[in-house]
Amino acid sequence: MIIYRSRVLDTPDDPFTGGALRADDDAGIAVEAGVIVDRGGFRGVAERHPAAEVADLRDGVLLPGMVDTHVHYPQIRAIGGLGMPLLDWLDQCALPEECRLEDPGYARTVAREFLTGLASAGTTTALVFGSHFHDAVDALFAEAEQVGVRMTAGLVTSDHNLPEPLLSTPERSYKEGRDLADRWHGRGRLRYAVTPRFSYSTTPDMLASGAALMEDVPGLWFTSHMNENPAEIAAVAGLFPGSAHYLDTYHRHGLITERSVLAHNAHPTDAELTLLAGAGASVAHCPTSNSALASGSFPLRRHLDHGVRVALGTDVGAGSGFSLFKEGLQAYFMQQLLMGDGVPLTAAHLLHLATRAGAQALGLDDVGDLSVGRQFDAILVRPAAGQPLDVCLRQAATADNALAKIFSLGTAADVARVWIGGEAPVIPAAIPAG
Length: 434
Ligand code: GUN
Ligand code: ZN
Description:
InterPro entries: Amidohydro-rel, Guanine_deaminase, Metal-dep_hydrolase_composite, Metal_Hydrolase, Metallo-dep_hydrolases
CATH class of the largest domain: Alpha Beta
Number of strands: 15
Oligomer: single chain
Organism: Tsukamurella pseudospumae
Keywords: Hydrolase, Metal-binding, Zinc
Number of domains: 2
Structural class: alpha/beta
GO cellular component, one term: cytosol
Family: Belongs to the metallo-dependent hydrolases superfamily. ATZ/TRZ family.
Shape: globular
Largest sheet: 9 strands, parallel
Bound molecules: guanine, zinc ion
């Protein structure tokens, strides 16, 4: 057993429904076999477990591991393509890079780069958009298993409206998805998600093949994009004249359940929000992506009013990096700029969106905060001495203010340690750029 002694901040009680930040200045968190078995003031915990080893982390702030509910593995090298709306950005930035993953060696290199980005930013759990290529997704799972990250991912499927190398057929997509799900779903910390790219690039037959896979393999997850950009939404309405709205293009195949995570939803109708809430499905809000592509401002108030579950995603590479601190801050900015229509977010809201809300969206009840019974998925924020975050943290008058400073200034460079199930992730060795 190890007792981690530190300042600890987490959000077991949802701040959107009256909960507050839980802040312990000198906590003891006792961990055995990767699970938190005791927690309280350090002295009390140490007295209850006199034989335990003590890890003194009082020089930092311990937070739960970050949860990224929407991030694209093949797009790490596409980060930074600014100045375009969604469909142009896909054509010019994302899709040419995604075509390169047809080469399995290239895909493995990118998988390592991607997992390095994820783990270095303090992301311990992620729902990952895979690649259109079976072998590239297989490589991602294999590398993720080595790193130790909790990952749900899948083969991205499309059968029209994309560059030819990215297209497949419903039959082939089923077969390849089935093979990947059989190999990886439920193995250690890995799970499989049926992942049609978006309704713009999938026919009803392709969506039906994803639904068939979900029927045939119990417990799979579902993820896709929805209501991101007005031109995309108009195009989808034209492609699916029989559907009531964008969500219905998925829902009519039975794809919207409590195991569904839809990215963006920046322009929903009330009917879609009602349907999402009733199904218990979640929305991955990706604020840096929505800002970079000028997709629109996320109507968080309407999601909350309808009771839709919302968490955060980085949406790398339309999003501008792997840090959930940056996404949290951008979510805050976006709501501020919505003036009276925005939700005034506190640092506790940002932490909840970046941790426990993500765990709940992914149905992972044993992660997301640092309570007894949870996995020890945690990060230590410890800025270098003299850096602005270090200076600011020393001045913080309250725990809420300290957390606001972390979201304002924190980067991967400040994430000094990461634990997943009590173990440090194995960050891949640097690979020469190829
Ligand atoms: N819609 C379909 N594909 C993508 C993608 O790769 N990124 C974003 N932001 N939206 C999408
Ligand atoms: Zn995306």
